[in-house]
Design goal:
This protein is an alpha/beta fold. Helices cover about 40% and strands about 20% of the residues. The relative contact order is 0.08.
Length: about 625
Amino acid sequence: MLNIDEYKTALKRGEKELSVSNQNNAFPYLPILDDLIAGVNISKRVNLGLVTIPLNQVVGTVNANRSNAFSSGFMPLLEPGTEFASKWCTLYDSMVEEGMRDPIIAFEYMNKYYVREGNKRVSVSKYMNMVEIEATITRIIPAKSDDPEVMLYYEYLDFYEKSSINYIYFSKPGYFKKFCELVAPDMEVWDDDTKMDVHAIFSRFSKVYGESVTGLSTSDAFFDYVKLLGFNDIKEKNSAQIADDIKKIRDELELAAKQKPVAISTHPSDSKANLFGKMFAPKRLKIAFIYMKDVDHSAWCYAHELGRQYVEDVVFPNEIDTNAFYNVTGDNIEQTLEELCHSGYDIIFDTSPQHNAACAKVAVLHPEVRILNCSLNASTKHMRTYYLRTYESKYLLGMLAGALTETDKLTYVADYPVYGSVASINAFAIGAKTVNPKAEVFLCWTSAKNSDPNREIRANGCDIVSDLDWSSPRHLTRRFGLYRNSPDGPINIAAPLWDWGKLYEEIITSVKNGTFKVEQDEIGTRSISYWWGISSGAVDIVYSNKIPDLTLSLMKHMKNQMEQMDFNPFSGKLNFKGQDTVDYGEGMSLNELISMKTLYENVHGFIPGVDDVVDELVDLTKLQGVIEPE
């Protein structure tokens, strides 16, 4: 007996979809593939054979023969007494009793499916809320072009070759490759276990998420979920645990949906103390400082340790308790963070950019603890990042180098190719060219394979060198800051001064007086990154007595301009390699400076990518490197 009542219910759904489409001035029937690809330059057609495809991606029909028999959602539109309705009902009864017997035949174009045979089977399957359907698929591939959608589709094709997954489709360039690195970084082609793990967790996530964040697709939300919490830590979770996770990361998903830029704090906040927040702030703060190395062998860690000692011994004696944790590597950072969160710490300062992802993950799981990571380009609400605008001091050192050089050849020794580092290199080069149009800057990286800065300095005939900023206590050397490379050894001229203690002081003060929370409330779901410079007092320069008086006066004048925030090194007309002259007016935006990846015209060298750095820095370069892996 034909189940005509089910057809009538499906018909009502179809009529409703038709009405909504008409109200929204949208095409009310099934999209037609022949119309979509008319005039499109098709590269090739590939037979994929029999595959399981997601029903929500079956969106249309191949030709116009049956287009107006269905709504845009594949629900029937013809009256119950028609032959079409009778066949629909017969198919429904058959599928209830026996399930789907024959696969449909369809074409895939731009990761959407268009039916050649089996439109009613799709209609019944969608009505029955099935998730997948068997299909014999021919893939139609458009020719490569500069169209963003086509470029994204080609990224998907590479992803499909590796994973055979057709139910995930990201909206942002680079996500497919990054997702593979998050799931199985060492696999050229995914094995069956990995495919099943991804399918299982994505299915559970899809049911719970339901595209609950406006503007963020299930696939994009799943990417953020995996990125934040780690694939290995979520793949065995059940639906209830996933639902709990989604509640915890909802702010992060909303942040991703709105695509708002990071809110950058450029100097200490002027916010008034929040009396209500101050009443409930911890009376005596417990603060942890995490270092990837020990302070005796690392100038970076030593500088941060001076900041820790400053806030505990000088600024907040008897008001805070700080503890330092040394040699915390990528292998034990998550465990260390978890232990600190469970040990009653109010603030955690992690000084290593390599720990950015781990800090973001633990910050989501422990919103009661204020976790900050020393890096740039933050992407989460729960974790803040902090750094110093080193490019300001580098500009002044560049001016000094350009004024004092006798060969017009300068060396800039850089360490890691991370966010913000290119701005410092270019600022030095611009500063040098400002006072000496003939100045050339030869760039070398301590993190690059087979790097030998001393050899490169000699080979290029450079007489002034901008080297790493300070030496560590156990490895004292005069090869730091700005120095003249003389036959008798380095003659120090000046050095940048990074006062991390000043930044730590202000952040701790904001927690104590309640303005830390005020800052977050003022910007809503955006993330916050502290990027302080000379105007904050956290960046300075120390000079030797070997600098001519007039040159020193010029340096101090320019520094004063920066203190008053009246001058930006990246303002006016600038010339970067491979680009026409651009007038940046009063200056580039901070976000442009953070992500800068092009060298200035007078710089000789390159910016390393993942394949160019030593093995121990590959993970850092993947995470914080400015050059995207190909």
